[in-house]
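Q: Got a minute? One more chain.
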Amino acid sequence: MTKNESARLLASTLANTHSLERAPSHIVVRDLIGLQAQFSRNPELSLRLRANDLNAHPWDDGLVKIWCQRSTIHVIRRDELGLYLSAADQRGDYRDGWWGMTSKEQAYWAPFIEEQIALGVNTRDMLKEVCLKKGMSPELLQKAFYGWGGLIKEMVRRGRIVCGTGTDKRYALAGEVQWMDRDEARLKLIRRYFDTYGPATRKDCAAFFQWSNQEVKPLLDSVLHEIDSIQIDCICYYYSKPLPDDTVPECVLLPGFDSTVLAYRDRSRMIDPMHLRKVVNMAGIVFPIALLRGKARAKWKLQNNRMEVEPFERLLKKDIAALRRTAKKELGIKELQIIE
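A: Always. Here it is, folded:
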């Protein structure tokens, strides 16, 4: 892939993910196909960088948190709950969980937890307390509230409850879910994927949703007449919006676990291979990054009202100046510290 081809792919990604021009928060969340919430503050930061209406309402207005693509937790629009749940379609009886609870234990305790949430017992700690009082053993309690989801995850995926977006681990009843046919839901999400992240490959799409290539191929084939494609290095890239030129901004800030990074198997449009492990480490942590001159050249974090920047390479004076301008413009951060 040539430098100009890489820049053109990145320019398309940045334009379609609202990294160049802000949009209403509900449009941003829709177009990005949810905001991964591995760390609770990342979705809010993503909207601070992309949305144009956060002064008018709380950042999480109309949003909930569920497990969806890649079996990871995302902030999505509440009015699209049925779409995401249907794409996985985990309806039906509970099954023995690899995390330790049997199907019978889940079927017994799930209605009790749902009932308590309806009564206002809606935080993780409150639910643990009432479960113990009801007779759940401490060993079973650990399994039900297992850190990677447990029974709570199974209830969410069946459309019984949803998670709050905050850090206090609060839950609510899901209400009536508008279920769809699984393939109809997946097809809608695949169209949205290529709207936002195209040009991208079929394997990129499969990896983003963690569906097999065999599952994605017939669905993608059914919409090929609606989308365009280009060949780069004998690989087919699909897209549905007009391609921009190869001009990219001097600096773009991306939050941790950002979909702009997660959307692709091949991340070379924004990350040089030599820096890949500085962006996505061996534990799978995706760090906040600064794109400078079209590539990830530093990671960053906010400390109080200061931005700390850790370069991957020696930054040019114009890179540091661009970082200062962008931090102030996009986040209102005036103090920048370079960590050598």
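A: DSSP finds 14 helices and twelve strands in the chain.
Q: Perfect, thanks.
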